[in-house]
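Appendix B, record 7
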Amino acid sequence: MSFGKKCFNFLCLGGFAYLGYKAYSYITGLINISKELPVYLKNVIGETPSMNINMVFNRITISLSFSAKTIAKHPDIADTTLEYITKYYPVFRPDRIVIEIDQKLEAEPEAEIAKEEEPVTTD
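Structure tokens (predicted):
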């Protein structure tokens, strides 16, 4: 093998190793965010959100659901979340993160339905 071919193979191997490292750091970052962000928001805001994280290529969408009272009390939830992610997870660029704040659907009290008792028949 010539020297040029060895260098080319070495550079290709190094490039694949770098891409693997970047993918690993993104995936571990997402796993850590999914575990630690609800705890952080519980401590800062006082309510644990329902959370959904989607990643498409290099764009991350984080959907957080809070009660209407919490959203009204803390209008800067998205900014607080973005500051936390950019401070503790620098692998994610702030311009590639989209944070959506939604209102939790509150369960309506169900009306009690009177069940009619069926007569018991014995044969």
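Remarks on this record: The domain at 3-103 is CATH 3.30.300.30 (GMP Synthetase; Chain A, domain 3). The radius of gyration is 25 Å.
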